[in-house]
Every structure is written in structure tokens, then in C-alpha cells.
Amino acid sequence: MGNGFINYMCKKFFHPASRDNLKRAWMAESYRKKLEELRVQYEKEQDLYTNKYVLDALSTL
């Protein structure tokens, strides 16, 4: 009954070990990583622009 039951449960949409749910979880994790990389890149660019603005402001004094 163990092998049959596991096989049966893995085909259910709510089971965390089903292939569709594993694929969804993997895709969500890769999307989350991509957003984090873009956020870090955006923060670096904003820091660069802020530093340039401060340097330009100081050079006019």
C-alpha cells in the first residue's frame, strides 16, 4: 500500500511533492532571485547617481 499510496498522493494538486508543485516552487524561487538581483542593481545605480549629484553640488561651491 505504501508505493501505491505515495504514487496516488503525488498526483494530487495539493501535494507538495507533485511535479507541478515542485516546478511552481522552483519557478517562484528563480523569479524571487531575479527580483533580488534587479533590486540590488537598482540600489547601486541610485547610489552612483546620488554620489554624482553630491560631487557636482560640492564642485559648484
UniProtKB/TrEMBL annotation:
Q: Where is the signal peptide?
A: none
Any one GO molecular-function label of the UniProt entry? transcription corepressor activity
Q: Which organism is it from?
A: Zootermopsis nevadensis
Look up the record and report any one GO term of the cellular component aspect: nucleus
User: Which InterPro entries does the entry link to?
Assistant: CIR1, CIR_N_dom
The highest taxon in the source lineage is: Eukaryota
UniProt cross-references to SMART domains, sorted A to Z: Cir_N
What's the protein called, per UniProt?
A: Corepressor interacting with RBPJ 1
Q: Where is the CBF1-interacting co-repressor CIR N-terminal domain?
A: 13-45
